[in-house]
Amino acid sequence: GVNVNLPASLDATSEPPPLFDGTTRLYSCYTCPFAQRVWITRNFKGLQDEIKLVPLNLGNRPAWYKEKVYPENKVPALEHNGKVIGESLDLIKYLDSNFGGPSLLPEDPAKREFAEELITYTDTFNKTVYTSFKGDTVKEAGPAFDHLENALHKFDDGPFFLGQFSLADIAFVPFVERFQIFLSEVFKYDITAGRPKLAKWIEEINKIDAYKQTKTDPTELVDFYKARFLAQQ
């Protein structure tokens, strides 16, 4: 894959970049799945030179970010044309509509409608799986992965949700990546067992350089999720 020299994360001791100087900046965090959605979109569209990646250390974030850039104090956020916008699902659509590079939504109205349906489902998907960590995980998380398996049957002109790689895949992949690692490691649950379409989807998405270079460190992830979700048990 492409080995990119990634910029160092900015923390509370870091100076701000020259804000609102006409540079387009994607404020991000290397471990955040929401930010990862926008990072993948930027990479896939070939906007590495046009959109500067500004990673933040969320555990020790710079005060100027909330004060001068994004009052919500979250990532991702995009500084573009003198304003800042946030929310990852809005941002992947914004990047697709407002910048060059290959389109990540097909022209076909049926596919566009299904994309919207799937993107709307992501919050439910994530909530279902995260909540399952505290209960009967396999039983509670199963239906969410079945939903993806079924969705992958809708268009058979390629291995992705709409056939070809699109915003619908980008919306899910950072979370599927993390869930696959964590469920396998902690609960010995293989999300691809009995789900051949999902297995193929993961395999194919892992061939995409734009995604590969954004993947999270599995060991760090497991430690982080254990501390966050299992500490109370």
Characterization of the model:
The chain is an alpha+beta fold. It is built from nine helices and four strands; from the N terminus they run βαβαββααααααα. It has helices spanning 33-44, 63-69, 88-98, 109-132, 137-151, 167-187, 196-205, 209-212, 218-230, and strands spanning 24-28, 51-55, 77-80, 83-86. Helix 4 (109-132) packs antiparallel against helix 5 (137-151), helix 4 (109-132) packs parallel to helix 6 and helix 6 (167-187) packs across helix 9. The termini are far apart. It comes from Carya illinoinensis.
Keywords:
233 residues, alpha+beta, four-stranded mixed beta sheet, 9 helices, 8% strand
* Form type: globular
Classify the oligomer: single chain
Mean pLDDT: 96
| Helix share bin | 40-55%
Q: Using the CA coordinates, give the radius of gyration.
A: 18 Å
Termini separation (Å)? 39 Å
Supply the number of helical segments: 9
Which structural class fits the helix and strand makeup? alpha+beta
Identify low-pLDDT runs.
none
The biggest sheet, with number of strands, parallel, antiparallel or mixed sense and barrel status, is: 4 strands, mixed
**Strand sequence of the main sheet, in spatial order?**
2-1-3-4
How many E strands? 4
Strand content: 5-15%
